Amino acid sequence: MSTTETSTDTTPETAAQSAAGPGTETKPAETHAFQAEVAELLRLMVHAVYSETDVFLRELISNASDACDRLRYEAIAAPDLLADDPDLKIRIVPDAAAKTLTIVDNGIGMSRDELIENLGTIARSGTRAFLGKLAEAKDGTGLIGQFGVGFYAAFMVADRIVVTSRRAGSDAAFVWRSTGSAGFEIEPAGEADAARVARGTEIVLHLKDDATKYLEPWEIERVVHTWSDNIQFPILLVGKDKDESEKAEDEKAEDEKAEEPRQINSASAIWQRSKSELKPEDYATAYKSICGAFDDPAITLHYRAEGRQSYAVLLFVPSGQLFDLFDPERKSHLKLYVRRVYITDDATLLPPWLRFVRGVVDSEDLPLNLSREMLQNNPQVAAMRKAITGRMLSEMETVATKDPDAWAKVWQSFGKVIKEGFYEDPERRAQLLGLARFTTTAGENRSLAQYVADLRENQTEIYYLVGEDLDRLKANPKLEAAKARGIEVLLLTDPVDALWTSLRLDHQGKGFKSLSQGDVDFDLVPPVEEKADETAKDAGAVDEAAVIAAVKLALGEKVSDVKASKRLTDSAACLVASGLGPDRELERILSQQNRGSGAKPILELNMGHPLVKVLAGGSGEAERSADIALLLYEQAQILDGELPDDPAAFAKRLNRLVTRGIGVG
Ligand code: ADP
Ligand code: MG
């Protein structure tokens, strides 16, 4: 890296005394490599398309704002940290001559170690997940604009970045430099730099040639309005007003103009304002700047609680995708403020199954000096959590009733998370089941209320089938008898479905019942067409006992039992779990984690099927009967999305049967 960029440190006439302490002796800058994931992210930044670059400023402003929030929080316990410079603010300084854009905050700042850690690795799980998605996407450039990538987004517009930072209360400042390629350099700040950055962080972006539009004041204002208007701290635009300066004759007058910073955001706590004065656009902007979102909110909930506790709530349900939904921590990300001071986004103000909800809760009553650990057990917080959860749910119910399409979309995105509440929150279960929408054999976005309203005569249970893939479920033979009787079946494909259904819940007095488990008996429900009945009659003609004996003999230990089926009309065979054990899909998931019960399935046979009937005759040799029995078992496995136990043997057996023929037509 060239040495010219340190030129500003070396002006000896600066009056400021060295504030940087002993670290300032000239000593070569240390070089560090970027973590591999960062390097990958940076490579992508280089290819960002023009329309996406705006977000870099939003990311840097959001970091500056976080830094101010953190300082204000630490200063509650240590007021000295704020003392000499109490007005927290963010400054943006375009310099057309130098082609630099500088973002400065007087927040918490970073120590040397923090610079290395924070600006050299990726800590956020969301960004990691984002990278995963990018890897899948092949051409990921279109995704950058939709998801924040944090500090590194600055490399979309800059080919060189110099960060000078001083941690609040520290007597040393450090400089971090990078061109975004292999790594970065770090060294103690020179005298002038250290004097200029008395607390907080200064980020100098050396703009790429195609990014110089960000030097224009109106361009900066546009981006700030769009993405950062609700940042709590004043954002000041420092620089020349071009038209004015062109007119100015006197150079000094021009210089004075340059000194006058202008606030370009509203810096108001929008959640404190009354609902009646806010428009949907205001909420959309607030959502973007408060929650760092790129989409528009699908649901907005804004209210003020008064009474035993008073607090303001502004919550959003995203309309876009979220990448950290299945992060193992399952944290909710609501921001907790106490009397306008940001405290934490870690206060679990919503249960994990609402972790996709974003927004702010601002309490008037909580003590400011409450430590984050104490928050976990605070009864006031617990009461807020309960009340906020209740409000959010009733808002969701309102949307579901008034705008079913909008709710269907929300459910599409987050239903798989809300379903966790079915088993984690028994108190809310009925309400959550009411909000649920299902793909069923009767259509999409079906509610349980619709299901129950459309129950067939004598039908007393809610039937479902769990699997990984919708198309495969739709083709599953276990649906046949239900279909013949016009019985609707829920087709469940989310990973959590195997779990909650194992609790054997009920809804409106109707139990949930799996079609791949236990005995299903549709006999009381009349068939839609006569055909189904004929099949049943046909079945009576077969010597069931002989068939079952032959198949049991061939399958041995592979199955726990062989039975005549009441759920098949067209297909020959299917595998089900016993009524007492776990559903087949749950058993499959559990055994992948070596937690399976080891329970063997039951093979059910359609006694009316020609392939099954052939087993009853007792004619033909034993080897052929065994082949057919095994084939029935294996095709049932395949229909459930499994592989036959021994695929090679399966193929051989199939070939043998096809070549010889089995004598049925
Ligand atoms: P995120 O903000 O989601 O943590 P970023 O990539 O935007 O991710 O920033 C990484 C980290 O760098 C931040 O978490 C913070 O610790 C640190 N950081 C970035 N900018 C600043 C700043 N202006 N002041 C203090 N710390 C900062
Ligand atoms: Mg950030």
By DSSP (H or I, 4+ residues per run), the number of helices equals 25
Bound molecules: adenosine-5'-diphosphate, magnesium ion
Could you name the CATH homologous superfamily of the largest domain? Histidine kinase-like ATPase, C-terminal domain
Low-confidence stretches: 1-24, 241-248
Helix content estimate? 25-40%
Please provide a written account of the structure.
The protein has about 675 residues and is of the alpha+beta class. The protein folds into three domains: about 5-240 and about 255-265, Heat Shock Protein 90; about 270-395, 2-Layer Sandwich (Ribosomal Protein S5, domain 2), CATH 3.30.230.80; about 440-665, Rossmann fold, CATH 3.40.50.11260. Helices cover about 40% and strands about 15% of the residues. α12 (about 380-400) runs parallel beside α15. The chain binds adenosine-5'-diphosphate (ADP) and magnesium ion. Magnesium ion (MG) binds near residues 59, 62 and 63.
For the structure shown, list the relevant keywords:
disordered N terminus, Heat Shock Protein 90, alpha+beta, binds adenosine-5'-diphosphate, five-stranded mixed beta sheet, 665 residues
Can you describe this structure in just a few lines?
The chain contains 25 helices and 23 strands. Magnesium ion (MG) binds next to α2.
Helix/strand layout:
Elements (H helix, E strand, L loop, with lengths): L29 E4 L2 H11 L8 H23 L12 E6 L4 E6 L6 H7 L6 H13 L3 H4 L13 E9 L7 E5 L4 E6 L2 H6 L3 E8 L9 H12 L6 E3 L4 H6 L3 H9 L2 E2 L16 H12 L5 E9 L5 E8 L16 E4 L2 E4 L13 E6 L8 H5 L2 H24 L1 H15 L1 H5 L4 H7 L2 E3 L2 E4 L1 H6 L7 E6 L3 H5 L5 H5 L4 E4 L4 H5 L4 E2 L2 E5 L16 H10 L3 H12 L5 E4 L8 E4 L7 H9 L9 E4 L4 H7 L5 H18 L7 H14 L5
Parallel strand pairs: 2-8, 12-14, 17-18, 17-20, 21-23
Antiparallel strand pairs: 1-6, 2-3, 3-7, 4-5, 4-7, 5-6, 8-9, 10-11, 11-14, 12-13, 15-16, 19-20, 22-23
